[in-house]
Specification:
This protein has 180 residues and is mainly alpha-helical. It has 2 domains: 88 residues, RNA polymerase sigma factor, region 2, helix turn helix motif (Rna Polymerase Sigma Factor, Chain: A, Orthogonal Bundle), CATH 1.10.1740; 64 residues, Winged helix-like DNA-binding domain superfamily/Winged helix DNA-binding domain (Arc Repressor Mutant, subunit A, Orthogonal Bundle). It is built from 8 helices and no strands. Helix 2 packs antiparallel against helix 3. The protein is rod-shaped and about 105 Å long. This is RNA polymerase sigma factor.
Length: 180
């Protein structure tokens, strides 16, 4: 037994493996290209693994011309194993998902938005500003604002409507983002 065979256990002789590759390599590679949807690199990796397993199977030396069914079965099993392994692992998220994540807002942006909103609120009439403060800063309903201010509910709703319309026009600058 040679040193190579002793180091690796029972393996095929290099000449026999080369003969098997010459007889069946092209057809097994073509089969693997079909199974891998034309992925040449993957097909070559799987072909190499297939012939590595053939090298470790000395019984193929008895009839090298009949090794093709064994090689095709090994190749198919390698493809199946690779698909199973990939399906066991969680899907990797690429950078495409990052485009849908909201950007974190910085403190400077909040300060600018607060100043801009304060300026717009200052432009409202005192009656409109008072109703907006009660409804949106204190979280009161129109009925509650009506009771606190002693004015009819219809007047509260009317003032809020006109105040919001005025605020929208003051805040209509395209570079402002007050949504957050």
């Amino acid at each position: 037994m040679s040193n190579t065979a002793a180091a690796f256990g029972d393996t095929l002789d290099g000449r026999v493996l080369a003969d098997i590759y010459r007889m069946h390599g092209r057809s097994v590679h073509k089969y693997l290209r079909t199974l891998t949807n034309g992925d040449a690199g993957l097909a070559e990796d799987l072909l190499q693994e297939t012939f590595l397993r053939a090298w470790r199977t000395p019984r193929l030396a008895h009839r090298p011309e009949a090794a093709r069914p064994w090689l095709v079965t090994v190749a198919r099993n390698l493809v199946i194993d690779r698909v199973r392994h990939r399906n066991r692992r969680p899907q990797e998220a690429g950078d495409a998902a990052l485009a849908h994540l909201p950007a974190a807002r910085c403190e400077i942006s909040r300060v600018v938005d607060s100043i801009t909103l304060a300026d717009a609120m200052a432009k409202l009439t005192p009656n409109r500003r008072e109703v907006v403060v009660h409804m949106y800063l204190h979280g009161r309903s129109p009925d509650e604002v009506s009771a606190v201010l002693g004015i009819p509910v219809g007047t509260v709703k009317s003032r809020v409507h006109s105040a919001l319309r005025a605020l929208r026009s003051h805040l209509a600058a395209p570079d402002l983002c007050l949504a957050a």
